[in-house]
Amino acid sequence: MILTKPLHRLLAFIAFTLLMVVTRSHHIATQLHLPDASVALFFLGGLLMQRRWGYLGAMIIAAGAIDYWAINLNGVSSFCVTPAYLMLVPAYALLWCGGDWVARRVAAGHSLIPSLAGSLLLTTFAANLISSGSFYFFSGRFAETSVLEFLPRITQYAPAYVGYAAMYVGAATVLYLLFAPQKAEQLIHNHDKA
User: Fold this and answer.
1) Over the stretch 48-79, which tens digit does the pLDDT of each residue have?
2) Are 173 and 116 contacting, i.e. CB atoms less than 8 angstroms apart?
3) Does the N terminus or the C terminus of the chain have fewer Cβ atoms within 10 A?
4) Residue 162: which of 110, 95, 62, 115 has the closest Cα?
5) Secondary structure of 53-99 in the HEC alphabet?
6) Are the beta carbons of 16 and 38 closer than 8 angstroms?
7) What is the pTM of this model?
8) What pLDDT, in 10s, does the model give residues 151-176?
9) How many other C-beta atoms are found inside a 10 Å radius of the C-beta of residue 5?
10) How far apart are CA 37 and CA 126, in angstroms?
């Protein structure tokens, strides 16, 4: 599951960047646009490339460049670009580490699906807390902030944030199971260690 060949990692990085261009450049999912895949792609990056931090850095730079292009050349609103925007870096790094954790568990003999589902749920929710929380508390867009006011916002936006990531990671998992059936069979039938 881990991409060991440099060419495969490069191809994955290019594919992930293209998917970010396609899904991130409009910032709002509509009937004509797919939801942003960035959250899932950072998680999958950690899963496939593990601790190759240069790829994480390159993907963060690519995401920033795509946002710059979308805002300055494609007419997307810059409402979300505030000092809190920098908190996407730790949010994306957390997702990457969540994917890396899954890869290490699978390599140690644990089953793929429970590890994947648990890590994806926890890291996407935590990344949403980081990105949404920093925007709410540090963007300067809200006159008064409080935890009690933030809670309804997180419950409003977290399901889509986590759900879209699960949709993309689920699709990637299905593709992997279809195109690498021998490896997939081993991953699914690993017995969890105590």
Assistant:
1) 998 889 999 999 999 999 999 988 887 787 77
2) yes
3) C
4) 95
5) HHHHHHHHHHHHHHHHHHHHHCCCCCCCCCHHHHHHHHHHHHHHHHH
6) no
7) 0.89
8) 998 999 999 999 999 999 999 998 88
9) 8
10) 17
